[in-house]
Design goal:
By secondary structure, the chain is mainly β. The protein contains three helices and eleven strands; from the N terminus they run H-H-E-E-E-E-E-E-E-E-H-E-E-E.
Length: 194
């Protein structure tokens, strides 16, 4: 009986946690990593063949940092911050030495009432600073980006849409934690805060 109970408890501990909303679910899974697959996008998108892992790495009451590994590329970190009026999403992109990429710290702020505590789906329309960055870097297709993060049915979804254009989504199974990937490249230059 004890052996069965022990197996049940260890099995429960291996499962990802769920909570009321998207931000809260990320916080509840702090320290865990999950495999992802492209659930929306072009059939020939190189992301479909990639090994994708999100690692809910750093969590506080107001911020969650989630590195996204794309094969051996550890350059991407989602930074979700609870702010007055909602949530802010920023994409922190780094080089292997930890230095910032030319295209980094882009994203947007949720629009009220989106982003309130308990929301399971949050939209982040591109902000003015990101539009200026995209225009400066010649990424004009990105000036109309909207990112979405959602949780439903044990899945975490990251989605990027553009009017009349791209609709891309990666889904991660929160019921099956895996071993975390190597540290994201931002760890090579600790101390840079935004």
């Amino acid at each position: 009986m004890r052996a069965v109970l022990g197996l049940l408890i260890s099995g429960l501990m291996a499962v990802g946690a769920s909570a009321e909303g998207m931000f809260e679910t990320l916080q509840a899974n702090c320290g865990k990593a999950f495999a992802g697959t492209v659930s929306r996008g072009a059939d020939d998108d190189p992301w479909r063949a990639a090994t994708l892992v999100m690692h809910v790495r750093d969590c506080s009451a107001t911020e969650v940092r989630v590195p996204l590994a794309f094969n051996d590329d550890l350059s991407r970190i989602w930074v979700i911050t609870r702010m007055e009026g909602g949530l802010r999403l920023k994409h922190d992109h780094r080089h292997a030495d930890g230095s910032e990429d030319a295209v980094t710290w882009y994203g947007g702020m949720s629009m009220a009432p989106d982003g309130a505590a308990g929301d399971t789906e949050v939209n982040f329309p591109v902000d003015a600073a990101s539009i200026a960055l995209f225009e400066r870097e010649g990424l004009n297709a990105s000036v109309q980006n909207t990112w979405q993060m959602s949780v439903a049915g044990g899945m975490f979804n990251y989605r990027l849409t553009r009017p009349g254009g791209r609709d891309f989504m990666v889904s991660f199974d929160l019921t099956k934690p895996i071993a975390p990937p190597p540290p994201a490249w931002d760890k090579a230059s600790e101390g840079a805060e935004h």
